[in-house]
Amino acid sequence: MKALIRSIRSGHPGSLFAAFLYFDVSFMVWVLVGALGVFIAQDLKLSATQKGLMVAIPLLGGAAFRILVGNLCDRFGPKKMGITTLAVILIPLLWGWRAAETFDQILGLGLLLGIAGASFAVALPLASRWYPPEHQGVAMGIAGAGNSGTMIAVLVAPRLAERYGWHLVFGLAIIPVIAVLLVFSLLAKERPDPGAGSAGKGASLSLMGLLAQGDIWWFNLFYSVTFGGFVGLSSFLGIFFHDQYAFSKVMASNLTALCVFGGSFFRPVGGYLADRIGGLKLLCVLYALAAASLLTVSLLPPIPVVVGALFLAMLFLGMGNGAVFQLVPQRFGHAIGAVSGVVGAAGGIGGFFLPSMLGGLKDLTGGYSAGFAVASFFGLICLSCLLRYRTQWERRWLPRSPEEPISPLSPQMLLAHSRVEMKVFTNG
Asked: What is the pLDDT of residues 99-125, one digit of tens each?
């Protein structure tokens, strides 16, 4: 505990707390459609594919907006962008409260809620820039623990919707957004030298220059599975528990909240352990355990087993989020805003893919087994890549002197590596 307190005090605790609150309320708003998914789907009489698409659209919107917000964050600073995005997300909340009566309108509303998902590209740079390399895992983990807003949404929103209707829930969400906007404005502080708190390998990059860096695509892959898995399941599990195991809407939300708890509150643990033993080493363990847990879920076992397996899967994915972003500042410290936007966008795309796949395969095969089996397979792909290239990445990603050159994987090497991995899986 003393070590944790020292880590927090090594930077700016006020900005760290502001980043956490900002991320928390933004996450709550971002997954609101998923939290209300069972109610909306029942009113609009949606198919499984439509349900999956409905809860996935906000995640896709978050992926798109994160790149834009990440670059603007590097340009104008995380405090200004945080205030701006909190103000803008009031628009889709008003729309959900006063209108949004059809499936198409829900999709449009969900896309605009993606602005709340872009909070990732603000909260993490705000925290990261105040903390030295040896405490990046803790700082990023605490700021990233704001994904606990997911648990608030899935616990509170269904209870309010059952009593007052799901439209009013969007209106009530305006209250905490305004409250956090005021607190964030008071506590958050820009660091005079944005790059001073990061490990800082390499200069600030343009978006195209960043995408030309081979390493960014590895981070994209890893985060699309850890964060994409976490947020995708957070948005879809209420529907899964209701449809597969016939739980009531509120009970399905309770079970979802239990699973989300593991991923939300163990993200800082993942960052802390990554600081101690290394992010790449920790990710090897976490991907293996997450894949095993999701494979267990694909068997559709009795409810105590499936809840336990999903809790563990979310826990391992949440810790994986912390581990990935313990590594990001070490490799791309001076462009942390833009990198957070790009890698966060990859996580949002992974989150969009998962519920869309689960819903689509449910209509195609008649059950959820195939979807969870595919999700497990992606965990194994990441594990295979880590086992193959971990030593090489450790040499290039760990902190080094500014004079030492960086030699990222080129796109051609990335393509070659991808082909090698495909051969491994094809040939068994």
From this structure: 889 999 999 999 999 999 888 778 877
Burial class (CB in 10 A: 0-12, 13-18, 19+), 98: exposed
Under a CB-based contact definition with an 8 Å cutoff, are residues 117 and 140 in contact? no
Give the tokens for residue 304: 């105590």
> Does position 133 have pLDDT exceeding 70, yes or no?
no
| Contact between residue 263 and residue 300 where contact means Cβ atoms under 8 Å apart | no
Where along the chain do its domains lie?
A: 16-188+203-427
Q: Which burial class, exposed, middle or buried, applies to 288 when counting CB atoms under 10 A from its CB (0-12, 13-18, 19+)? A: middle
Q: Could you report the per-residue pLDDT of 32-81, keeping only the tens digit for each?
A: 999 999 999 999 999 999 999 999 999 999 888 887 887 788 788 888 99
Tell me, which fold does domain 16-188+203-427 have in CATH? Growth Hormone; Chain: A; (1.20.1250)
Per the CB < 8 A criterion, the answer to whether 136 and 272 are in contact is no
Terminal alpha carbon distance of the chain: 45
406: closest CA among 333, 319, 317, 300? 333
Cα gap 22→318, rounded to integer Å: 18
The number of angstroms, rounded, from the C-alpha of 37 to the middle of its chain's C-alpha atoms is 19
